[in-house]
Amino acid sequence: MPKPARSKPLLRDTEAPVRSRPRGKRNPAQPQLLFDPMPERVEPALAQLKSRPPKGKEWSWELKLDGYRLAVHIEPQGIRILTRGGHDWTHRFPAIEQAARALGPATMIIDGEAVVLDEEGRPDFGLLQQSLGASGKQAGNRASNAVLYAFDLIYLDGHDLRGVEYRSRRHLLEDTLNVANNDEAGAVRLSETLDAEPTVLLEHICRLGLEGIVGKHLDRPYRSGRTGDWVKVKCVQSEAFFIVGYERSTASPAGFGSLVLAAYRDADLVHVGSVGTGFKEGEAIRIRKMLDTLRWKRKQPPLPYSGGTDIVWVEPTLIAEIEFRAWSTDGKLRHPSYKGLRERQDNADVFRLD
User: Fold this and answer.
1) Measured between alpha carbons, how far is 7 from 11 in angstroms, rounded to an integer?
2) At 53, which helix (H) or strand (E)?
3) Does 280 qualify as catalytic in the annotation?
4) Does the record carry Mitochondrion as a key word (predicted)?
5) Residues 159 and 77 in one domain
6) What CA–CA distance (Å, rounded) separates 254 from 249?
């Protein structure tokens, strides 16, 4: 009796691309079966941030990936790759589109994360951002080296799976991607489930310099938003903030000393500190050029501010992904480091203060 298919390691090479089994012809004598129409778009399920992983065997764990959340709609008439905000980015992920086309003729919606891997095979948000051209004039570029790690299946061959518990959706995903024969070096891969006690797992993941872990409750349906059915535990905190200004630099007149950051409190923006580290060569100059086109035209800054006066204020348009260690008692980021720019179409969640 053959062994059941299991998730394979993240970077293991295998052989041939996957194709669905040929469909059998419908028996004319069989009554017409009812099918669920494929949704035009599904608001994604999101992971709730936790300081420590919950206990219990009802959780499935996998790596937290550092990329862009995508929903891949596969239909006979074509492929659509939608961002978290519902924007069609099919043209920006040509390799993922081609790999998704090979999964047909089944109709399905795959939920996953697009990443670009570094030389050590680890997801690198900065590399993905560079591929997409999000930090310069090449905005709209194609990320031809991006890989989609699929971690959920929302719809399959006429059946809306959102009401089905996660453990069954996961089995269907593994079967659909045909893990035993899937091309693990291709552009659509199965996200690996990690079989270990989550606190030990988290310690190991953090030691490797990775983002963290995501847990999914095996008995829950697919529910949009942050319901607690999915949780994430990070090694280092990383969130998205508006850039609302920059501090001039005497050392680099064409760049800046630091970026002034803001988060939401209810509907208002509040200052959460500044970031002056993490910029790769030339990045500060490129960002400065972008910011100078967004200069704030009013006398008052775009938010309450009690710091230094030598700040050039800008329209809160650009969103930066920032790593940080903790929050100070006065609500500022401690040890922040710049990771890259987010695109508005990615519907990046600008951080909201409770």
Assistant:
1) 11
2) none
3) no
4) no
5) yes
6) 8
